[in-house]
Input
Amino acid sequence: MSTPAGGAGGPEAMSRRQLLRHTAWFGAAVVLTVTGGEVISHIGGTPTATAIAQDPHALRFVQISDSHLGFTGSANTDVTGSFSRAIDQVNALGSRPDFVMHTGDLTHLSTSAQFDQVRQMLRGLRAGAVFTVPGEHDSIDDHGQRYRAMFGTGTQGDGWYSFDIKGVHVIALVNTLALEKLGHLGTDQLEFVRNDVAGLSADTPLVVFSHIPLFAMYPAWGWGTDDATQALSHLRRFSSVTCLNGHVHQLFTKTEGNVTFHSATTTAYPLPHPGQGPGPVPLTLPAGRLGAALGIRDVTYRTGRHTLAIRDQKLA
Amino acid sequence: MRQLGTTLVLPAVAAGIVILAGCGGPAGAVPGTAVPGTAVPAPVSAGQAMPGMSMLPAGAPGAAAGPAAPVATDAVSIQNFAFSPATVTIRTGTTLTWTNRDQDPHTVSAMSGAFHSPTLNTGQSYQHTFTTPGRFDYLCTIHPFMTATVVVAP
Output
């Protein structure tokens, strides 16, 4: 298991040179905001996200997650409506994103009808491309076969893949198939990661997507990946690695050495903070409060300037 | 080995929803529902982006009974991401009924493969008749941190 949240593995785990480069690329321009101009967290960041977005050479992508189409509980009686609003919000961003990544739990029950619905809705996104990784709700009882039939084109193994775009190397992992309490990647996928980055320069910024966190956010609820440490060991030589996950339905950020993890929120319903309550039980918020717990995330990376901005926006 | 007597029954949907509604929003106002002694790693940043969440532990008191003494019953509730009772002791030939009272889907799946429910959505039940003595550990395949045991006496 990787280092527990808040534990060891701090800056001493990386060389000073790595730390400086990492800080220059990431720490200097992490921007977490919400819509309406209300700034939640703003760390350094001379270049604002808006300025970066106007740079034609900038990479801009959006992460959406955990739409759970088919969920009907009181925590959100209209997940289709909120996912639709999330798509509208992506389409209303200042510039068309290079790609949109849905980090899993597209559906609630892995039914063909739910997969059809989510694919249809994703077609409404105005973006250069749309990618997905599966959540455990997308692979119920069939090891992800229905998911891959619809979203697995061009992927390897059980649905993992990678690509390069505007100087950034993107890796999309599948850690929801061989669940044993925690998320699991497996030897084939670990080998894929090792080979995938073998030829890359250590200066290449890496962005890694998975559904379940690659760090130990709260293992008692399955919020971690048991062999993530092995995958991350192949990424240790890179100056900057950004891991973006879903699954936990809430924002959370953590840095371990050269790797920064960002859990995204959901478009469906919130879950409790780690350990609050008996389990990851969907939260039914007071009337009018749900929208503030849901959202989308847009990320911008400007080549050359080595700046990256992450903005988390509440669902409008 | 698939055993006889496995059926899926679909009553009690309304009952499940009523129970869930009862432990939803209003539960946040009930004092003393927070679980003591659980370590909560503080969000490094942006935890504030979820106003109101911290005041909603929303747990049904008592449903998260830990590893308690074995209980003789023929009904197991799936609630708050736990099988309750966590261990049941029955006689050979008994039919157990599991009912999902969560908003999330769950399964009842023996680690040995001896039985395996379909996906149980809110309010759905699953029955299995135990025809051989022994100890059966099982879990939810969607949330495999949910584990429990059936002990079948001769």
About this structure: Residues 17-273+282-314 of chain A form a domain with the Purple Acid Phosphatase; chain A, domain 2 fold (CATH 3.60.21.10).
